[in-house]
Amino acid sequence: DAGITQSPRHKVTETGTPVTLRCHQTENHRYMYWYRQDPGHGLRLIHYSYGVKDTDKGEVSDGYSVSRSKTEDFLLTLESATSSQTSVYFCAISAGKVSQFFGPGTRLTVL
Amino acid sequence: AQSVTQLGSHVSVSEGALVLLRCNYSSSVPPYLFWYVQYPNQGLQLLLKYTSAATLVKGINGFEAEFKKSETSFHLTKPSAHMSDAAEYFCAVSGGSQGNLIFGKGTKLSVKP
């Protein structure tokens, strides 16, 4: 299995609070991605990174920001959490433009 | 723009029966195509991928998929279902310029004893 961890694995928070999710990889892959998974929607791309300090927006980026200061870490921040951001968040990594490998996910509940 | 359509959000088969999960794609360039499986409360695991080599792709756990350009399809099959195959299956196509994947909405496979 690809070395990808996500933390925390579960989080409950309140509307309006900031939340940061962490993705850590040990594979030294260049590309990292954040997706959210919601019933009936599959997985949708939030943000991605193609190198240290190089990031770009995905399909559903509103309300989210990211940072990548080291190859191994990709942080996703919800600046002011809303109930619509209740979801399961997956990080993925890729060495190139082919297979992506997914982390175990973070289940976030915003009350 | 690339897109993926998975026909049937739920598929139920009997143990030992053929599994057929359908996926059609839209792509303006030769695509890379993927099938992932997700077991309950777990992440996504790569089952198989098509990257423009053989059109019949064999994956893990006895699954295979055939790329048919004329039909823009990449259906997933397994000759004989096992109870352990019960999971959600996602078809994906390589999409954005940075290699991000475009996913279908998923098909939940149930296997009856």
What is the end-to-end distance of chain A? 34 Å
Main beta sheet of chain B: 6 strands, mixed
Q: Termini separation of chain B (Å)?
A: 41 Å
- Tally of separate helices of chain B: 0
Beta fraction of chain B: over 45%
Radius of gyration of CA atoms of chain A, rounded to a whole number: 13 Å
User: How would a textbook summarize the main sheet of chain A?
Assistant: 7 strands, mixed
Structural class of chain B: mainly beta
Residue share in helices of chain B? Answer: under 10%
Q: Give the number of helices of chain A.
A: 0
List low-confidence stretches of chain B. Answer: none
Please state the CA-atom Rg of chain B, rounded to the nearest Å.
Answer: 13 Å
Most extensive protein-chain contact, per-chain counts: A-B, 26 and 22 residues
Multimeric organization: heterodimer
- Low-confidence parts of chain A lasting 5 or more residues at pLDDT below 50? none
Q: Mean pLDDT of chain B, as a whole number?
A: 91
What amount of the residues of chain A lies in strands? over 45%
What is the average of the pLDDT values of chain A?
Answer: 93
Count of DSSP strands of chain A: 11
Structural class category of chain A: mainly beta
What does this structure look like?
The complex is a heterodimer of chains A (111) and B (113). Chain A has 111 residues and is an all-beta fold. Chain A has strands spanning 4-7, 10-13, 19-25, 31-38, 42-51, 54-57, 64-70, 73-78, 87-94, 101-102, 106-110. In chain A, strands 2, 4, 5, 6, 9, 10 and 11 form a seven-stranded mixed beta sheet that branches. A four-stranded antiparallel beta sheet of chain A has the order 1-3-8-7, with no helix packed on it. In chain A, strand 9 and strand 10 form a beta hairpin. In chain A, 39% of the residues are buried. Chain B is mostly beta strands and 113 residues long. In chain B, strands 2, 4, 5, 9, 10 and 11 form a six-stranded mixed beta sheet that branches. The radius of gyration of chain B is 13 Å and the shape is globular. The mean pLDDT of chain B is 91.
